[in-house]
Amino acid sequence: MNLGAIEPLAHLGIELVHCNAAEAVFSLPLDGNRNDKATVFAGSQYSVLVLAGWYLTSAWAAEQQLGDKVAIKDSQVQYPKAALTDLRIVARFVSPPERRPSGHWRALLSVEARDQQGELVSQFTGDYRILQA
Predict the structure, then answer these.
(1) Where are any strands of DSSP class E within 5-99?
(2) I need a labelling partner for 107 at 20 to 30 A (CA). Which of 41, 59, 65, 99 fits?
């Protein structure tokens, strides 16, 4: 998992805060991600939500020695509140990853972005695949 190889990270100011078996935590600054309403651009939020889920799934796959081919298959996102501050993003597994009949693994994740007051500003559900070589 080479975060440095993902070019939008630097442009959006996305930073990894920490990652363990239970969660991956990232930050996204308001500066550099404002839209025309002076709130955090939804596209920037979506990028970090997908990335956080991908990172946690990739970390799990590496721990299980399943390789590094992780891809998002499907997702759903909601934006219940405008984001006016820097964001803290937390990705967690909905349930343990499971092996599919195809041999690939499926990982369902929930990722939340909260503002500096702890208010939910975006919520993402991602269906990731760990592809076997």
Answers:
(1) 15-19, 24-28, 70-78, 87-93, 98-99
(2) 41
Q: How many domains does the chain have?
A: 1
User: Residue 74 is part of which domain span?
Assistant: 3-130
Between 118 and 102, the more confident residue is 118
Tell me, what DSSP letter sits at residue 77?
Answer: E
CATH number of the domain where residue 21 is located = 3.10.129.10
The predicted-structure confidence for 31-45, as pLDDT tens digits, reads as follows: 999 999 999 999 999
One-letter amino acid of 37: K
Measured CA to CA, the distance from residue 22 to residue 20 in angstroms comes to: 5
DSSP-derived 3-state class of residue 125: strand
**Under a CB-based contact definition with an 8 Å cutoff, are residues 84 and 115 in contact?**
yes
Is the pTM higher than 0.90?
Answer: yes
Interatomic CA distance for residues 45 and 35, integer angstroms: 11
pLDDT band at 4 (very low <50, low <70, confident <90, very high): confident
| N-term to C-term CA, the chain | 17
Q: Report CA 18 to chain centroid distance, whole Å.
A: 13
The token pair that represents 27 in the structure block: 């930050």
